[in-house]
Amino acid sequence: MKRKNKMHKIFRTAVVVVAAALALAGCGSSAKVSQPVSGSWADIVAAANKERSVTLYSTQAQAVLDNLKKAFESAYPDIKLTVVRGIDSELLPRIGAEQKTHRGIGDVAVTTDEAWIHANENSDTAVAVHGPSFDDPAYRRREAIIGGKFFTESAILFGFGWNTTLYPKGINSAEDLLDPALRGKVGIVTPATSPTYIDYYDFIEKHYGGRDFLQKLAANKPRIYPSTQPLSQAMASGEITAALMCNPMLPERAAGAPVGWNAGKYTWGAKWYGLTLGTAPHPNAAQVLADFMVTKAGQQATSPGYGSALPGIDGALAVAQDVPAQNLEVTVGTGAEKFRNDWESIFR
């Protein structure tokens, strides 16, 4: 209970600090917000079909997004889904720029940056979500949606990965990555591109020997990647042999890639939150896509190998609503800055 109260205070502090910065930058202006038509859900769907297009900004894996595009366009053949994949440090500034200039390109976005979400909770960055799927009791709306705008889509789970051809004995814990045989062959991700990565490093420190472990890992000369997707690709190709952080890679394994995954003794996860953008050029299609993402068909497309926002999804490894919040003491403000600086001093 004490941790919950403490986290609540940290969230509020983050909201005040970041919201002030957004205001100074000219974000959250009084320009007209892009809203769907008034009326029934059928009216919104009809208007979405006339818009014929919707664009998604997402930090999710490309294979997941490919599955989503196929499933969505099958359910709504009159609407073309364009996917723009990137990392938080690329996509969130783009969203801010589109809001500042009132020239929206994206309609829906997905991110794991909880501090950014809470900072924008009372701004026009996102609009309220509509759609029958959000009211499905199985979705647990009260736990899943922040401020009526930011909806839990799924959750990424990180663990240890390895190339099964190059390292058949596998990785069971973080300490296994210190094997001298893996010198120069372990992949890690810079925490500069997302608070999510900071949170994972914080988790690793808590459970695997603290800062001393990171220093030992640095001595083993790991290779640094901007995100988990190129890291996973490098491991599958044999460019690296093992990874400190990667998702379970079910699509890659199903396709025959020689990769293994282990969550270890402790499990870490981060929620992906979706939002319909206040500058969406296709506000009705945005609502239809958001709603579809939390249907069973949408979840079956995005959640195998991850945490799903609905129970009973084949291949899902957890329920996203049960994943704990980030440790904002280290992922926000001066805590994040200090962690990144310390990380740079160790690994660079």
From TrEMBL:
Gene3D superfamilies attached here?
Answer: Periplasmic binding protein-like II
Q: Which UniProt keywords apply?
A: Signal
Q: Name one Pfam family in it.
A: SBP_bac_11
Q: Coiled-coil annotation: which residues?
A: none
Signal peptide stretch? 1-31
Q: What is this protein called?
A: ABC transporter substrate-binding protein
Q: Which source organism?
A: Nocardia jiangxiensis
